[in-house]
Amino acid sequence: MSGCATTQIEEPEIKPEPTPSDKIHKNSDLSFDAHQYDYDIVSGATSTTFGTTPPPLYTDEEKANLMFWSNQPPLGVLEGYYYKNERSFSGSNYGIVEVVTNPQTKQIENVQFTEFASNPYYENKYSGKNKRLSDYAFFQAANTRTDETLVTVVNGITFVEDQMRAENRLSGSFNTVKGASSSARQGFMPLASEMSGWLDESFGYKYFGVAKELDNGIIARLEVITKDDVIEEVKYDEYFADSYDKMTDITDRPYYRQSRYYSIDYNLATNNEFIDFADSLTNYIEANNSLIVDDESFTKHEAFETYKTLAEMLDIKPSW
Question: What's the pTM?
Answer without folding.
Answer: 0.90
